[in-house]
Each structure stands twice: as C-alpha cells, then as structure tokens.
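Form 12-C: Joint structure prediction
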Amino acid sequence: MGAAADPVGPELLEVSGVSKSFSGVAALEDVTLRLRHGTVHALLGENGAGKSTLMRIVAGVCTPDAGELRLEGRALRLGSPGQALAAGIAMIHQELNLLPAMSVAENIWIRREPLNALGLVRHRELRRRTRALLERLGVDLDPQAELGTLPLAARQMVEIARALSYDSRVLIMDEPTSALGERDAERLFAVIRDLRARGVGIFYVTHRIDELFALADEISVLRDGRHVGTSCPRDLTRRDIIHMMVGRELSSPPAATPVQAAPVALSAHGLSLEGWFCDVSFELHAGEVLGVAGLVGSGRSKLAETLFGIARPTAGEIRIGGAAVRIDSPPAAISRGIGFVTEDRRETGCLPGLSVLENLEISALARDFVRLGFVHAGAARRACAGMASALRIKAPDLRERIETLSGGNQQKVLLGRWLLLNPQILLLDEPTRGVDVGAKAEIHQLIARLVSAGTAVLMISSEMPEILALSHRVMVMHEGRVAGILDRDLATPARIMDLAAR
Amino acid sequence: MHHSVAERPAPSAAPARLRRLPPEAGIALVLIALALAFELLGWIFVHQSFLANAQRLVVMILQVSVIGVIAVGVTQVIITGGIDLSSGSVVALTAMVAASLAQSSEAVSAVYPALTDLPVVIPVAAGLAVGAAAGLVNGSLIAATGIPPFIATLGVMASARGLARWYTRGQPVSMLTDPYAAIGSGAVPVAIFLATALVFHVALRYTRYGKFTYAIGANREAARVAGIRVGRHLIVVYSIAGLLSGLAGVLTSARAVSGQAGMRLMYELDAIAAAVIGGASLSGGVGRMTGTVIGTLILGVVTSGFTFLRIDAYYQEIVKGAIIVAAVVADQYRRRRRLTAT
Amino acid sequence: MHHSVAERPAPSAAPARLRRLPPEAGIALVLIALALAFELLGWIFVHQSFLANAQRLVVMILQVSVIGVIAVGVTQVIITGGIDLSSGSVVALTAMVAASLAQSSEAVSAVYPALTDLPVVIPVAAGLAVGAAAGLVNGSLIAATGIPPFIATLGVMASARGLARWYTRGQPVSMLTDPYAAIGSGAVPVAIFLATALVFHVALRYTRYGKFTYAIGANREAARVAGIRVGRHLIVVYSIAGLLSGLAGVLTSARAVSGQAGMRLMYELDAIAAAVIGGASLSGGVGRMTGTVIGTLILGVVTSGFTFLRIDAYYQEIVKGAIIVAAVVADQYRRRRRLTAT
Amino acid sequence: GVSMALFDDNFLTAVRASMKDRAQQLGVQIQFEDAENDIGRQLNEIQNFIAQHVDAIIVNPVDTDATPRMTRLVASAGIALVYVNRMPADRELPPRVSFVGSDEKQSGTLQMTEVCRLLGGKGDIVVLMGELTNQSARQRTRDIDDVIARPACRGIRVVDRQAANWKRTAAADLVTNWLSGGLRPAAVVANDDEMAIGAIQALRQAQLLGSTMVAGIDATPDALAEMKAGALRVTVFQNAPAQGRGALDTAVKLVRHEPVPSFVWVPFELVTRDNLASYLGRH
Ligand SMILES: Nc1ncnc2c1ncn2[C@@H]1O[C@H](COP(=O)(O)OP(=O)(O)OP(=O)(O)O)[C@@H](O)[C@H]1O
Ligand SMILES: Nc1ncnc2c1ncn2[C@@H]1O[C@H](COP(=O)(O)OP(=O)(O)OP(=O)(O)O)[C@@H](O)[C@H]1O
Ligand SMILES: [Mg+2]
Ligand SMILES: [Mg+2]
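Section 2 - Result
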C-alpha cells in the first residue's frame, strides 16, 4: 500500500457540525469529518447509523439542517447535485440511482453527452467513450444494452462507471461492492488504488470489514448519527472496529451441526429453464442449509425463482416431501410451505409507501390473522411487533413507512415477512446484502435457529464467509449447471472457487 | 446501544402525535376554508348565509353523489396504480339498461312492451350486473393481456358509449315506475353515496381485500412475490368499480326518471379528480376513502357556491380550475411543512 | 477462474439482433394488418380498393393531423411521466384567439373591428403564444408546487375552457382571411403534422433535451441526482406541449375557417391514446415519436375504414374501442414473445 | 335563473344572447348556468336555483323526457318556470309553467321538402347527422325519412348517413371520405349549418360543388354568407332572438301573475336564394 497508508495528506474536504433529522428523528448529529487528498476514508456503522445520509449531504442530494462543508478551505454552498458535480464531488449511490429504460452509455454520460456542431448527440462517440471507460473497469458490457434488463451486478458496475466518468476530486462510494462478486470487487479495488495515487479523495462506505484492511487509510465510525471516532486501520483489529460500531461484543455464529438422516424436504430432478439453467438436481433436507455458490449470473437467482413458481420450468420436476408437485405461482409455493427472500429488495421486496407493519404482515394475511376477510389488527400487530424485536429491526415506529428505514433494516423486514409464515422451506437469495456486521450475525443466528428447529434453507450467497459459516452442504453453480455439491468438510474456498469458475 | 422498535420509546411524543394526524386532515381544512369563504362572500355580496340553508346543504351533496359513488370505485382502482376511464360511459349504458326495465305500463313506446311495471329490484339488479360486467371486462383485459389500464378502459369507454347509443338507437327511455324514481329522489342518493363510501372505507382499512389492494399499488412485482394473486385481485377491483358505476347509472336514471345515452360521458374525469384531490396518487399505493369523500364534497361546495354567488357560468369554469389546483397545492404545502417542521 | 458479470458472452447472437428491432415494429405491423383487413373487406363488401386511392390516403392522415400535432407534444409529456389533460381546451382557446385576429374586413361583427385583414403571421404567432403560455402555466404549477400533473392540467383544462367561452361569450368567430384559411386547406395540415413529428423525433433522439426528457421519466430522483434541473426541464416540456396545442388550434380554426369555443374538447384523450397505442408508457421513460405517428395513423385508418365500409354509426364506436384494445394487445403479445425468445 | 343545455352550441348561444339583452332592457337580474348536455347537472342547477329562491327559472332542457320531474320540482317550490327551445314531454303544463319555442318537427321537414323539390324528386343523397344522442339530430333525421316516404320524393335514396357531431371539420372529413370512395351524391343534407359548411368545404376542395347540392338548418351568418356565394342551397331559420326574448317576456309575465298561454310558438322559416336578402344581417 506504500505511502498511501500514511493518513496525513493535505486536507481536501471538511465536513463540520452536520446535523440532519427526518420527521423529528435525528439521523445525524453534529458530525465532523476530514477527507485528505489521495486517501481512502472508510465510513463504518450499523444499518441506519447515518452513513448514507451524510454522504448524500456531501453530494448535494440532500440538504443538512445545520453544519457546513469546505472543499480545499472554501465553503461549499450545495443546493443541488449538479452543483456538487460541478465542484468535483461524485457519488456512487447505495440504492442505485439509474435510468432503467435507457442504455448503459446514456446512463453513464447523461448531461455530458458529446455533441456535434448542430447540438446533436454523437452516438458513436458516446459508445466509444463508454467502451473505453468500461474497459478501464475490466467490464465488457454492451454500451447499447438497456439498463433495466441487466442483472444487479452489471447495474452496479454502470453506477460505478458513471461516478468515475466525472473525473472528480472527491469520490463517494456507498457500498459499491454489496452486489459484486469477488472478481469485480478486485477490479474495483485496483481502480480505487489508481485514483488514490492520482490524488483523489475517496469516501468509502462498506459493511465488509475485510475490505478495509486492504484499502482504507482512515476509518471513521458512526453510531446512531454521531461520530464515534476516526483512526488508522493499522492500529485496529477487526474486533476493535466491530466494537466501535455496535458498542458490544458479537457472539460468533453457532457452527452448523451436521444433520443426519433427516427427511428430504425439497428436491429438484433435472430442472431446467431454457436460457437460464439446465439439468439442476439436488436434495434439500429438513434442518439443513444448502448453500448455493457461484459467480454472478450463474443462474442461481433464476433457480430460486423457479422453485418459488415465479418462473415455470421448461423441463424437470420439483418434489416436496418426496411427492412431485406443480408450482406455477407464488401462492402455490407458499401453500406448500415455501418462503422466498429475493435479492433485489427494491424491485421485488419492499412495498414503498406502506408501513413497516403492512410490509411485515402482507404474506401472512393470505393465511393468518383474517376472519371472514377482516384482518384481526391486534393479533397481526402483536405478531409483527414480536418479529420486529426478535430481528432487532430499528424503526421509530411500526407505522413508519418502510422506505424511511435503512437498507439493512429493510432487509430484516423482508426476512421477517416470511418468518411470520413459519415456512418449512426457506429460499434466501443474498440474505444479508447491505446488512451491517451486527445485524448479519443476528440474521445468521436466526438462520441457525430456524434450521435447528427443522426448517430447510436454500441460501444463495456471493459472500464466501457466509456460505462457509452456515452451509451444511454447498452446491456450486457454473453457467446454469450444477458444477458440484460439496459436503461441509470438503467445502473449502479453493474448491468452491475452482468449481465455480472451472 | 443497539435498540429495536419494541424496546425503544417513541422519539418524542409531540412529533409522533403530529405525524399521526390522518393525511386527509389537510384537505378537510381546505374544504372548511372554502365553505367559510363562500359564507363570508355570501354575506358581503348576496346578503345570505351559504351554510345555514338546509336545502342548499342537501343539494350540495346531492349534486355530487353520483360522481361520489363512481369515485368510491375509482379510488380503489387508483390505489392499485390503475385508472378507469370507462366509468362515465358505463354509467350511461347501465342507465339505459336499467331504465328500459323500469318503464311503467303508461310508457308510450316502451323498449320492452312486455316487461313494464316490473318490481324495482329487477332494473336495479340489471344495472348493477351490466356495470359489474363492464368492470369484469376491464379487469380481465388488464390481468390477462397486461395492457395498460389506460388503454383497456379507454377501449371499454368507447365500446360502452357505442352500446349505450345502440341500445335504443339514441332514443331516451322514459316514463319509469314510481318506485324506481324513488331511488333517485330526495336525499336517497346522498344516503347511498355515504353508505357506499363507508362500506369501502371499512373494506380498504380493515380487510385483507384492502391490504392487498394497497400492496399491489405500492409494488406490483413485490406483491406477486409476496403471494398475492395480482391478476385475480385486479379483476375483483375493476369489477367493483364497474359495479359502482352501475349503481351510479341506476341513481342517475332514477333521478332524471329517464335513461339517456348521452348522460355522464365526462364523469370519469370528475371522479378521478375527486379521488386525487382527496389524496390518492395515480402512481398507486396511496389513497383513502375519507379523502375521496372530502374531494367529492369540495367539487360540490364549489359548484353550489358559484351558483349561490350568482357568478356567471363563463367565469365559473375559469375559477373552478383555479380552485381545484389551489386546493391540492394548499394540501401539499401543508403536508410538506409538516414534514420539515417536525 | 472467477469471472465477472461482463465477461460473460451475450447468451447468443440471434436474440441480440432481434432485440435491436425498433420497438415500434410491432405496432407498425398492426397498422399494416389493419389497412390490409380493410382492403380485403373493401373488395368483399364494397368492391373497391381501400388503399389504392390517393385521395383517401390523404384524408386518412388529414383527419387525424390535428390530433397528431397534439400527440407530438403529449408524447413528450408522457415520456417525463406526466400527463396533459388540458390540450383539448387549449386548442379551443387558441383557435378562438387566433381566429379573432385573422378576421377579414368583410366580417360582419368582427371581434376587433380595428384589427382585420392582418398579415397571417400575427394570428399564428398569437395562437402559438397563447398555447405556450398555457403550457407554461401547466409546467410551472407542476415544477413549483409539486402537485400531480393530472391535477395541474385538469385545472388548466377547466380554466382554458372557461376562457375560450368567455372570450367571445360563446359566439363563433368567422369570416377569416384567405391566407389564414390556406394554412388549413389541402394537405398543408398533413405536412405540418409530419414536419412537427420529425422535428421532435430528432429532438428526442439526438439532443440533450431528449435525453433529459427520458431520464426524468425513467427515474426522476436519479435524474435529479445526475444534476438535471428537473423543474426547469419540465417547464420546457409542458410549454412545448402547450405550443403544439396552440399550433393545433391554429390548424383547426384555419381548417374550419372559424373559431369555436366548443371545438376539440375531447381531443386530449385521443392524443394520449395515439401516444399510448404507439408504445408510450404512462409511467414514464418510454415512448417514441415514430410510435406516436403510427398510433395516430391507426386512429385515422380506423375512422376512414368505417366510413369506407359504410358501417352504421351506432356500431362504429363499439368496434373502435375493440380495435384500439386489440391493437395494443397484439403489440404487447409480440413484444412479450420477443422477450421470452431471447 | 336560466339553465341552458349546452353553451357550446351556436344556436343556443344566440338564444342566450337575446335573453341577456332583453333582461338588460327590462332591468331584470339574470344568471346563466351550463348543463353541459348532462341531465343530472341540469337537475342540480335547478335545485340550486330553488335553494336560492329565484323568482323564475328558464330551462332549455337537455332531455325533454326528464321535464316532468323538473316541472314538479319547480312548481312545488312556487317558482315560475319557462321551457325554451326544446319542447317538454309533459302532457300538460301546470299553471305558471310555459314553453316558448318552435316545433322541431318543422325544421327537417321544411329542409327536406325543399331539397326534394330542387332535386325534382329523385337522386342519391347522404345525410350528416348531429350527435346521435341529441334530440334535434334524431328528429331532423327522422323528418328526412318521412319526407322521402312521400310519393313525390320516392326517387330519392339515402346512400349513407353518418354522425359528424355538429362539427365542421368532422363533416368535411366525412364528405371527403365519401367522395374518395367514388360516391357522387346529388345532395348532402346536414342536420345543421356547421356540418353543411364542412360539406361545402370538402366539395369545394374536390371541385364537385357544382353537381352536389348542400342543405343545412339554422341560417347562421356563416351559412347565409355561403348561400350568398351560391354554395348553400337550403337552410331553415329558427328565430333565436324571438325565442330568447319570448322566454324572458313570458317569465316576467308569469312572475307578475299575468295570463300566459302554455305554449308560445315561434315558427321556423325556410331560407333559400329567393328570400335570402331579408335574413342577411338579422342575427
Ligand atoms: N428520506 C428519509 N426519511 C425519513 N428517514 C430517513 C430518510 N432517509 C434516511 N432516514 C433515516 O435516517 C437514518 C440514517 O439512514 P442512512 O440511510 O443514512 O443509514 P446508513 O448508515 O446508510 O444505513 P445502511 O448501512 O443500512 O445503509 C435511518 O434511521 C433512516 O431511517
Ligand atoms: N453481463 C451480463 N449481460 C447480460 N445479462 C447477464 C449478464 N450477466 C448475467 N446476465 C444474465 O443473468 C442470468 C443469470 O442471472 P441470475 O440472476 O439467475 O444469476 P445469479 O447467479 O443469481 O447472479 P447474481 O449473483 O447476480 O444473483 C444469465 O442467464 C444472464 O442472462
Ligand atoms: Mg446506507
Ligand atoms: Mg442472484
């Protein structure tokens, strides 16, 4: 890491005394931070600690109630994102802010399209620039592809490319790797080191603590909207950081106990979905976690969708408890005791505008808390409140709208939605994406508890540690096929990687 | 400290209480302000009270009760993120059909000379059935083919209008029986409107039907994944909206004691306006029956107020447009202030 | 090896080529199919060719060219995720204003007796200015107050309608000068419609104006974050839509050689329908001028086709509704098949 | 209080204007409402007037079949009521209720009889209808059929009839569509002058004005100008000023409890080239 590890560069950006509250609840209180030239300043904190809010204020997306920003000593008056961009501050947003119906190139260069003398956009030049930029990131996407049709990881790369295209002095990255596989993340790190060498100051928000030691020059921690402290990663251990974030020790996840001779809860036999995956067979036992590893785009999510009746298989069959079943819609899956937490909580998870309570209870209403069509509101609220405290969902009130919750807390709400149904089989697609270490440990414990109570869990995850910590067996997928199923003791990172990439 | 909802006390009592004010409080204030403004202007310009006139108050609601009944259905459609342009035409069609079965034996050239003086339930049931059928067509088109509600209901709008004209070749249907006419006389339409609104207020807030309706409007894809049968539910919602248009058709023909194909062709816009003034969002997921009732009343107060002040019809519309906009702006402003103030 | 999102080859080359087919190919096929259907029915029932008739082809476009001009503006509004209900009323208002400045000195009771026989640019400029002003009001209301476009344009719709009537107290304005009438005669409206569509086709596809318009409709918050001044841009888009309604008003009054307050009140729905049939999505971000032109032509073909087949006026609307729905269903079906095929 | 069926109607606008003038002359306070062709709205307006205790209500009914209810409502409130232009369906009108207007049956009959005379009792004609739900449109169209059924006009055939909804441009488009289909009618008979003018525009464009005769109803200034120019052959004058004035005078008399006949007739008058001069400038 060389000189970059020395955190005393000249000061680039100063955030001082910033406060912000939403509906009377403080999200930030008197936060002061410094970002130096040519450094990576990591920002940590639990879900809802205020990291994104602070970054959005720096990027001019959101106006603070109090406090000021100084860029190279001069006070910044930021009224709009356009002004921040003009001042040299660009941001990669956590909740991707992209234009789904437009092309990759248009998304990246919006507002800076190359024009000819007549003021018309030069589409060829636009594509050329896009290709050049994506090459730098080591991504080979079609510049003309419609963004909305791309998988989440590709969209994340586009968001990164766009922020880079501004060639800004300050770059804010809010959980840029949460949707990326390791290879893409490595590429991104290389780009970050390159930018740092060129004097760019980078704010880096993440929940993957391991990344910090490879990348960060300084680490600041936010807790409940307050700045807890700033230090250098060399002086800290992983344990220290977690302690600073959550203010207590974490219990490590219980090691998965091997299941013996439990009945098969769910099995697939030669299951195929044309164009996505083919000939997938596996058995999932009650009380077992079957981890599904694989590269981004290996067809894992589509497999889960097929098991849940969102997509219909073109061949093969699904058996539950040994009997072949036809699952052609989510209600059919639910009635057979299957639950499904999808990977894209914005598109297929949250019901925005509705309260946390309504988001929690919605699936359960198909079965519980209803008599003659009327909802037993008291019972539903008690159950939801119980679930919320069991999952430690941080919300001022269950009647608060779900979109006001931090990403990690939204994730817990969606998990809670399915837990209320007590499913025998739970499909989890990236269950801890964007979830902080504390909450992640809690979710892991929860999964372990469910499993020991007999629930069968199919867990897709791109995070190797997560797969390794929880899975009894690991199914590795490669380009839509099962590359192998490994028992726990054989599942080493190297073997998994080997099967996934082949 | 890591704390969760259950452990954590509400941040502070005051803002929480403020936040719990129902969202339609703002538009209700606008309604009251409008009524008071007319009261004041009344004393200044026509030396009469606007509100202290029971007859006027009844007319005020009466004249919008048909729009109100439509709006009750349209609100539910809007909550799912859809729109129903067909209501006006469906009202006309059901009015024709219901009236044709409600003719008295005195009618000179009855549509069905053999079917006169029928008991009142028959034309009412026929009207409701035709309305529900039109709604069923809307819903099925949207659910089965995935075309935008705008197009599906636009198509049904044109077809229903054509059918309404074709039914008696444009001839009005008159000389209806007295029991049928009674449905539309006095304050009966007002009672029906308020009862309908109450029923669906309860349905939206306290039943699974209502919860699913909101969920679909909030995020259709997520609702589907959460296990809601979206298509089937949409069919139900549009059918209910159709049924209520049918009810509105019965009310109109009973009020006019005649069925006319040209009637109520533009009512869909008024009904949608009532819902949107009342806070429903055309992007779905948001809206309440109480808001819609208030939105409907605002339309009624404005209309009555203008006549009361003897404002020339030329100016009425110019001003009416401005008032609708101002009402929604005032409501928005209040809501935004509340958000930033707390 | 661990490889990334992007290294993965596109699933296969053929579907990629398929994906590049312009999205309006589907609806263009529907248009062709409709025209051929009328051709066939023509030979069977009236023993004539539907298409091999230059005059008919001109009327086919001529009769929808005013709707088409409005639809060009409305498409842009729809792409931003908005809606413009005021177009029809603005057409009526601008028609009145333009006509009142285009009267010949022969006019018996001219609106402005001192201002007759003016050069043709004056009424045209006045019409465009009034239209743009109405659009400016729409846009400013939406941008400054944040009220839904539905409400803002509904308010302007009512006010413009009132103004149009008030302007001459409902009296029609006639005896217009010959140069003014020339704007509406022959195929001039057709040329103006197609030229307008071309200009805005280029604007949407090849200018920043267009990119911003799509961006705002695709994701308003993302557009804001990317630094686009959303409010200002919306004002421009609505003003352009108003300007085009003004142009439509000039065309209508020139075609009718008279301005009438009651004219074209329902044209907003036709214009929106043309855009939506052409593939524009009311949820924003999607839509193209070529699609809108095709959507407009479909309306024209259906109207001409009915007259051609001498279909009874009572059945026309019933069938028209069904055709609009069928056209969009056919297009959707084709699109969905394409998607699953890849 | 006055409730008009529709403001956007040229003829009704003329009726309204003359009422207003007359009210000014007599010093009567008058308030107009537009029912926008909606019977429900019209009922509301009447009820609003009653709540306001006006002295007299003048109604231009949207739907003449719905008048019995209006009659009952207004009469029971003890307010004078005058129907104007469109004849109420009431079998008999109670005291203090009158109708001022013309017999709608006359207009189409006068128009078609003249067309039939000019055609010499034979030829193909097309009919431009007003809005299909409009009473005058239906009546006038039916009159055309009745006249054709007469022995003297047996040679006339209606080859097509379509609705142009009282709109000039819609009429022009329709006629052009017909012409492009090879139709060469001997006459275009329109339910009103606006549509007749549209037909004239289309025929002029196709240079077929010489061989096709156009007939309208209403004798609007534009129509009279076209007649002067030789394009329009037949129209029918409905005396809007007389109806408006008559309605107001009747209302005033009713308020003063003076005797008034239940039906005050204002006759239709046929206008052709021969008597054109006496109508020019009468509006
Ligand atoms: N638009 C908003 N309206 C109301 N409350 C909000 C809004 N945005 C954020 N908040 C609240 O502000 C607090 C901080 O949220 P923020 O998104 O900054 O957290 P974060 O640290 O980024 O969390 P995560 O790690 O989950 O992304 C949360 O309690 C959240 O509920
Ligand atoms: N770069 C890409 N461009 C276009 N489509 C892609 C790309 N990468 C993946 N896909 C699509 O994604 C499909 C598989 O996606 P799926 O979401 O099922 O995989 P996954 O293993 O769950 O990936 P992820 O880890 O992102 O969830 C592929 O069949 C392919 O069509
Ligand atoms: Mg965040
Ligand atoms: Mg996935």
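Section 3 - Comments
The mean pLDDT of chain C is 85. Residues 25-341 of chain C form one domain.
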